[in-house]
């Protein structure tokens, strides 16, 4: 594949990712345009709505303004003025990440990896800017700068990860000197620092991933247990079939966001749904909240065993550190073992805390006017709590895991050789005695 075809292929991959992301909401809205409104409303309204949904799904700030009639119907303080929406429907961002990783793998199979990555990311950025500009409206205005940069950064990071995970190494001669230079600089670092940093990165991300996985299971269990309350909220809204389907799709787009809320609950700080509210392991205190069916799964009142949830990040970090300890000990050697162990455990806490704090920042922010200006977890609190819990547990896991000392390693071959020589001597003695007995028995009298 030559350069022109590689560039065209990469541009097509980027355009496909944008088309799928916007089309997920545009397709049902277009059906709603024909079935519910009979093609009487201008279709561009639904395009702008789809573009706004896609941008909000990537964490782009939006400024909304409601007409006086709608603001009076909501009955929320401050609804008559323009208000920001900063919380992200992370389902769209997750879709971009998955498709971006796939695009990165496909581009890595060409002979011009660097060119393909630049074209793919550049094309995505231009399309993201075009979607942002097409969605500008006095009643719903996205941030132009964020609309062009934030989705592009998410897609670019996914493409880079995908290219690294490709099963076929790229033969692009352009990136070979870059890889060689990076490898040379890494090899110049002290061995202990390299091993400690790699172990901390791997263990911290593994701990954060385990917390997110347990949070996803917890959310699924809560939805299943409180299914009756969720159905009751659906019935109370009196939505028709299309309205119920649109509401369900919107909630599905927020599922990754709700999972991060559950992870923040497991870490300790919990999350809020409105100013002055709190949902944490110590108890739930809620004021008036939107009648969204999935909120029927929220725990209510004081939880007798809610503190048990705090063990999830602790156990996850301890197990991750214990599993990484053998390779870490073998690579680090005996020099300054305690110092590097402490640094690695604290590094795992730093990595895990930063990861969960960043996720919490995407899953929090303003979601509407009035008291809805504060929704989701506090990123700083989540990051600090997670860093302390993961760091201390990882340090204990690194120190508590059994390890073989150098004397044990030297003694093992010696004991093996001694046992072997003993068995050889015994077998030789047995052979000699047997032959002696045979000679005695066969000797002439």
From TrEMBL:
InterPro entries on file: DUF6350
Source domain of life: Bacteria
Residues spanning the membrane: 53-77, 83-101, 113-137, 143-164, 204-225, 245-267, 279-298, 304-326, 338-362, 382-401
Keywords: Membrane, Transmembrane, Transmembrane helix
Region (Disordered): 408-445
Protein name, per record: Uncharacterized protein
UniProt source species: Conyzicola nivalis
Compositionally biased tracts (Low complexity): 412-436
Pfam family for this entry, one: DUF6350
